[in-house]
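Lecture notes, continued. The same structure-token format from the folding unit now serves as the input rather than the output. Read the line below as a description of shape only.
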């Protein structure tokens, strides 16, 4: 795998939103225009802390959790990959593709810590699945506490000279306001830089593109996730499940209620490639498994509803009928993975650390709905049509 290395000591793998009218993060690429806030983000795990925490988890696990540097961000920060388990079903999870969407990172760390223990439950999970995590896949954006990475169009052209003279991609940010500075530090929405053709090479004719067309793998962050995905395909033949952990604006409600959404979920990111509306992706039809994605989302929903109502039970369905092949979720769904989107309530600009612990625990419990369901096989017995009964997310104006 490109730029991959393992750091070992004594045989153990270790390491030395918007408050205004809401917008749906997966349906467009606005970095958000929140009212000026001064919320602290010091309680979230930053890049340096992440390395130390992963080192400790790997050491405590006595080799069960292996940590690698899978690649580097544009500003040469490590993009860490953690792996635990020996099962033939691969569960790949990433967090902080948008740097101001942070709760997933700590949820992943908590899960890695548990899966590295000697408990019978953890051992059972390790035998059934291989759990692979990219806990902070866009560290430059995370350090800047914003959506986009830190990369100029000139740097893209330097890497891909064939793009000289092409218009910058549509997801390139160059503005400055009171909340986000992209004027002095331009960047890209990395979650629009994926392509279902995992071997795609950027071509000038495909720029600037748009939300309903594939991305390009022009950012080192998306290239790293792609390379991890491809390496898992080579090793295991299939990535059974891909989960992407995001945040959304804070004021969504479960449709038909006054309950604020804890998080919304989704299985749908591209039209069915076997349908007329999905003909652009017809060559992926044999791999696409929407029913399995729906089963996984129902497993999350059921796990959360079992916790009772607020603060954990207010789970809703993210807006459907999306056409987003440039997202990691869309691209990997077309390559045969069951896919789940988490859109957690609030972002750092709208909540800071408020309710941080509750939201982290909610993400954990939802993820265990997937992990446990795959481990005991129950997820494969779910009627996928139950997905259609999950209440929709409703925006509050």
């Amino acid at each position: 795998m490109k730029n991959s290395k393992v750091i070992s000591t004594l045989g153990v793998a270790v390491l030395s939103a918007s408050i205004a009218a809401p917008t749906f993060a997966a349906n467009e690429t606005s970095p958000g225009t929140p009212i000026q806030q001064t919320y602290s983000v010091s309680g979230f795990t930053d890049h340096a802390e992440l390395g130390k925490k992963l080192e400790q988890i790997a050491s405590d696990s006595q080799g069960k959790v292996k940590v690698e540097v899978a690649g580097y961000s544009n500003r040469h920060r490590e993009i860490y990959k953690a792996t635990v388990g020996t099962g033939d079903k691969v569960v790949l999870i990433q967090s902080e593709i948008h740097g101001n969407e942070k709760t997933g990172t700590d949820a992943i760390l908590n899960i890695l810590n548990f899966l590295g223990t000697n408990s019978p439950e953890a051992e059972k999970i390790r035998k059934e699945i291989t759990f692979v995590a990219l806990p902070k896949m866009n560290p430059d954006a995370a350090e800047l506490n914003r959506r986009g990475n830190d990369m100029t169009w000139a740097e893209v052209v330097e890497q891909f000279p064939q793009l000289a003279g092409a218009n910058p991609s549509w997801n390139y940010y160059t503005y400055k306001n009171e909340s986000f500075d992209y004027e002095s530090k331009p960047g890209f929405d990395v979650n629009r830089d994926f392509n279902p053709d995992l071997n795609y090479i950027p071509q000038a004719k495909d720029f600037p593109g748009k939300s309903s067309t594939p991305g390009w793998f022009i950012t080192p962050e998306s290239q790293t996730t792609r390379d991890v995905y491809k390496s898992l395909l080579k090793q295991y033949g299939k990535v059974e499940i891909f989960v992407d952990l995001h945040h959304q604006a804070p004021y969504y409600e479960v449709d038909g209620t006054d309950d604020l959404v804890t998080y919304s979920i989704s299985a749908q990111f591209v039209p069915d490639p076997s349908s007329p509306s999905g003909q652009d992706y017809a060559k992926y039809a044999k791999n696409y498994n929407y029913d399995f994605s729906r089963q996984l989302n129902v497993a999350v929903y059921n796990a959360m509803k079992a916790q009772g109502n607020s603060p954990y039970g207010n789970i809703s369905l993210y807006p459907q009928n999306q056409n987003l092949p440039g997202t990691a979720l869309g691209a990997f769904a077309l390559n045969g993975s069951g896919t789940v989107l988490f859109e957690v309530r609030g972002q750092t600009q709208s909540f800071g650390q408020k309710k941080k612990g509750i939201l982290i625990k909610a993400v954990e419990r939802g993820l265990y709905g997937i992990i446990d369901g795959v481990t005991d096989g129950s997820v494969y017995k779910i009627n996928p049509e139950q997905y259609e009964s999950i209440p929709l997310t409703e925006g509050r104006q």
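Point for the exam: The chain has one domain: 17-44+69-395.
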